[in-house]
Amino acid sequence: MKELTVTVRRFDPDVDKEPRFVTYTVRVSEGARVLNVLHAIHDSIDPTLSYRYSCASGQCGSCAVRVNGEPVLACMEEAKDRITIEPLNLAVKKDLITDLVPRLDQIASLLPKTEVVLPKKADIDAIKPLKDCIECLCCVSACPAVDVTKFLGPTAMRQEMRLALDPRDSGDRILDAVRDGLFTCTTCQACWKVCPKKIETPAKAIEKLRAHANRRGFTLPRHKEVAAMVKETGRSIPRTSESFLEKVGDVIEPDGPVKATVGLFIGCVYNLRQQQSALDAMEVLKRNGIRVIIPKEQVCCGSPLIRTGQLAYVDELKQRNIETFTSRGIDTVLTMCAGCGTTLKHDYQTPFTVIDINELLTQYGIEAPAKLPIKATYHDPCHLMRGQDIHDQPRELIRQVVDLVEMPSICCGSGGGVRAGNPDEAAALGKRRGEEIKKTGAEIVITSCPFCEFHIAGHTDKPVKNIATVLLEGYREKDRKTAAGKD
Amino acid sequence: MLADEVVDCHVLVIGSGGAGVRAAIEASQYGDTVLISKTIVGKGGCTTMAEGGFNAVLREQDSCGIHYEDTLKGGAYLNDPELVNILTKEAPLRMGDLVKWGAVFDFTDADEIAQRPFGGQRFPRTCYAGDRTGHEMMMTLVDRLAATDVTTLQEYTVIDLLRDGDTVTGAIALDEKGTIVLMKADSTVLATGGGTKVYDISTNSSSGTGDGYAMGYRAGAELIDMEMVQFHPTGAVFPYDARGRLVTEAVRGEGGVLKNSQGERFMKTYDPARMELSTRDVVARAIATEILKGRGTQNGGVHLDVTHLPREQIESRLPVMLEQFLKFGVDIRTAPMEVAPTAHHIMGGLRITPECRTTLPGLFACGEVSGGVHGANRLGGNALAETQVFGKRAGEAAGKAGKRQKTADERQVDTWQKRLDGFLTGSMNPAQVRKKLQLAMWQGAGIFRNAGALEETLQTIRQLQTVNLKAASARNLAECCIVQNMCLTASLICRSALLRTESRGAHVRTDITATHDAEYSPFGHTFVSNAREGIETREVKA
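Above: the input entities. Below: the structure tokens describing the complete assembly.
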């Protein structure tokens, strides 16, 4: 037996105006789950604590709650000391019981055709990965789009895709998915990262449905414009000034001894809009022994097309990009853009290793910059943190140059074609980010993705800086101090 | 006084597992149907947790006759032969309904429904969807239910059946806030599932509290073979709070082997012909014996090992097992599981006819709450089939039954109101009563039984039944009612176990020496009702 102290959010609509947090100390067995802690409170401290459960073995999806903000199944999540247990981010009926039924009712049902059709094994095999869902609604709780739009949520889209694959179903699932918010998903990946069954809804359902929608002509006009531009120029945004690739040479040699050689995949936004951030990054790499080869014939990675279901031209882009690096014998390709990085890592099959700049710099270690007297917060780019599991590395770098205050990791609203296709939604999510930034009291916001950098800048009065820029400022301050010392 | 809220319908279905939802789907073709559920439909009950599969004869090499014989033999010839005949003949049809409605069962390379071997069956006839078969069925049934005009009342707890004389005329329920709701119906279908939550170690969901047995008994229905409790051979043993969690028979169906702490495949001494795929009663007793004899693991189990199977097979056929054990720190691809018996299924229940009529007019029963299909031991894969075969039958018979004057006994409602008020001023935490009951049942009415221990357990239960339960708020009233139902169901198990003075199937009396094989037993069903109790005798075959 062991003793755990936990805090539970209580709310009785008949009595309470606001939810209240109550702390309990309970004795539970070794290996106890969050559900066992709730049982212990209910059975021996306060029988009025309300929570829902049924199978207690991860199969029915009744008991999902948030533990320290993350949606989990109470019956499967090991209980730890000092945790905070809250209901899912849905309408609360009492304490930890949320109103699941209206959300469950929105998930589509199979409508059998009048004539009897039987599936083939191939159909079953295609459907099965989407059938593990236990409708616990962890994904809905975590989805940022659900909060600000009428999006029915990730599992509703999973079900539309499951039905679209089933020869027995008579419904028009593509039309329904478009109606129910298919294009509001920012592909932030939060849904499947919290999914107890790890169903990859963004890639396996949403992007697939968008591809079907594309063939049916439902692609949003703004997304079509982007696709047309990629096809015409190889780039997803227009050229308005000298591009990064035009500004730099073919190879950037480091100042000191070479620790590593990488090929740079720049991506459209750094190439054409946020060139300064990319140039700053080159300075940082130069200073830290990284030799950078920059092939000029590289093109868009295809992410804006893949995320929006416009796949027709993607294979050609992939082939061109892969050829660009392999023809030079490059075995490691560096990405700075979170979106390009996740695309190269997951949507490509590359003969070379793909590494993000945060991974690279922490792997080889950096020269210590001067510590700047600045309080900063960090925005996790979805396609870095969830797409590439890069969470600690940027923080390790940031802490060397400024003071870091954390804020919750939530999508800024710029991904998945939402900024272009659903600007109101992107703005609503951006505004939420702005509010979180304000709460931290930070003087600057740091991020490591050009989309986030650009989008967040429109929703906060604090400067939004690339992680490379901040490091470079640290080096400049260091150099200034050194120079001043010499004087 | 009558409650303020009254729901009136043609068919009332109580319970939202596989049997209840199937019954409601069928009944809705004949009139207004209400499905009332203690949980959210599709999430509660045990069907959604059922992992292994659904027995149905689908191949030419197999036959309903063989399925019938396997089921009777597995059930130690205590089954009602007519119910078994219906089960085996209609299981393939009900399987067909599910597939037509969109169920995603595993298929073979020849585009046929795949089947795996299960214990006690001479043909691999267990259809499956990985190891989440029941969940797949429930999702399909809930989809289908949504296409009907059945009214669902979710998270309402039925606390008693309404009566008019001997006739059942509906039910009394509590909503989530503890307010009484009266449900009046021409026909009432009990589909409340099982009740092995009366044991300390059980595979059941939170709703496996035996309410249907208790409510049926109180209303005057007769129950048969309540001593027949299936202990599933393989439940988890670690960590403590996960004890009893089902480790599906599919693990052995896929080739998993049982070993004691000395590394011996001990089934060779208990059933060398069928080994791990012997019937559940035999395997459960074998494991319990190994543990009792000191050949168990440190955590009090035996090893169940699939590490010799290809990883791909484990990952695709047993994904839930893999995930559950990984969560508790065991990778079943590289390390054995530890397992021990766990209370799983009640074979007994309300006595039914082939149309699922109980002994009370107006009351039908289907699924685990009914008795007779499985006899003294259920074959793995027959319960899911039973829910569909008899769920349909109950829904159809209830739907076709005529209209009746729907009167409720006002005194019954008054009595309940007083009892509920009493809970609000009671003194004893129902959780404590539940725990005492569960421990007493595990110790005194488990796998190995004797008259002394059963009497003692019955005494404990009777004492717990007199306790003045306390509801901390109106929302806690249902909990008090449920704990009382658990006590009543447990007492029926003990009484029936005392009535059966033989060892048969899952029921083992260590104080009685066997003088006959099951096939030649002079005994039939045990029966208990509030009017009579006893054991049927039958002519012994030569």
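Note for the figure: Chain B has a mean pLDDT of 95.
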